[in-house]
Amino acid sequence: MHNTVDGFSYGLVTPLVAYLMACLGGALGLRCTARATLVSRSWRPGWLALGSAAIGSGIWTMHFVAMMGFTIEHTPIRYDWLMTFASLAVAIVMVGVGIFIVGYRGARGTALFTGGTLTGLGIASMHYLGMAGMHLDGQLTYNTLTVAASVVIAMAAATAALWAAGQVRGFLWSVGAALIMGLAVTGMHYTGMAALRVHVTGTAEPSVGGSSAELLAPMLIGPLAFLLLAGVVVLFDPLMVMGRPAVVPVERKPGVPAHSEAPRTVRHPAHHLVRRTRRPLAHRHSRAPQNR
To answer: Residue 142 forms beta bridges with which residues?
Structure first.
């Protein structure tokens, strides 16, 4: 039996909020990825990990905000908490693998393709694993061609976003990339939802007080709090806004004042020049009596 499936039960509210969540996670993650290229290797893993968690949390939050507007006529929807949070872990880990590849190998060539592919697969895996955690009195099937299109959209969006993060052209550049990434990721979500077919087998009536918004809202508190914390970290780091490193990194020459390097480079060659010009003269005078 086919029941009416509605993905916009709250109108445009859930798609717009979902898009903003995807943009927020993408902006924070891309700035952290760009920031990782401006620091020494000892700090780079921390920034890349923060960027991975921000992108994964933003995409996961986007997905379940959009799912708040998903309803099936006369059929209650339940969510498996373990499977739901497993999809969050998969998103963070797979996105992290792609970001670490680009962070250490550069956003170009094979590294960009590999990182974008893995990040896109992580986004798609999160979506369909999250859908697997949704339980109802029926069966979910998917159109294979539409699912493949959603995966391609996810990989293309991830590759473009990582390429933009590797350019390190400032805050506005990353914001623009995040807006594009949010649009692509949200489009991937609704493309995947368009591939869904629901075959209801039971006749259960909707449970009282069991709307999707009431079920999903408590699960979104943790990721939203993390995105807020990541936003505070970004705002209080000046290099995140300027998008360029300091002129002279201190960690390259610990304990050596920067102003003491210039005099030594000027005096040192002159000192050797005087010594080299004096030694041949001394030897020439010392050998002169012997030659006579």
So the answer is: 196
For residues 13 and 200, the model is more confident at: 13
Separate counts of helices (H) and strands (E) for the chain: 9, 6
User: In the chain, pLDDT over 90 holds for what percent of residues?
Assistant: 27
Phi, psi of 249 (to 5 degrees): -65, 130
- The rounded distance, in Å, linking the Cα atoms of 292 and 287 is 9
Torsion of the alpha carbons at 184, 188, 191 and 197, rounded to the nearest 10 = -160
Can you state the angle between helices 144-167 and 171-194, rounded to 10 degrees? 170
Give yes or no for a contact between 185 and 22, defined as CB atoms under 8 angstroms apart. yes
Residues 178 and 27 sit within 8 Å (Cβ to Cβ): yes
* pLDDT tens, position by position, 72-89: 877 888 888 889 899 999
CB 121 within 8 A of CB 94: yes
Give the C-alpha separation, 85 to 216, whole Å. Answer: 11
Tokens representing 40 are 């020494």
pLDDT digits (tens, 9 = 90+) for 132-162: 988 888 888 999 999 999 999 999 988 887 8
Angle at 51 between CA 47 and CA 57, to 5 degrees: 145
Please count the CA atoms within 13 angstroms of the CA of 282 that sit on its side-chain side.
6
Q: DSSP letters along 42-72, please?
A: TTHHHHHHHHHHHHHHHHHHHHHHHHTT-EE
The span from the CA of 9 to the CA of 72, in Å, is 10
The secondary structure of the chain in percent helix, strand, coil, rounded to multiples of 5, reads: 70, 5, 20
253 in the Ramachandran plot: left (φ > 0), alpha (ψ -120 to 50) or beta?
beta
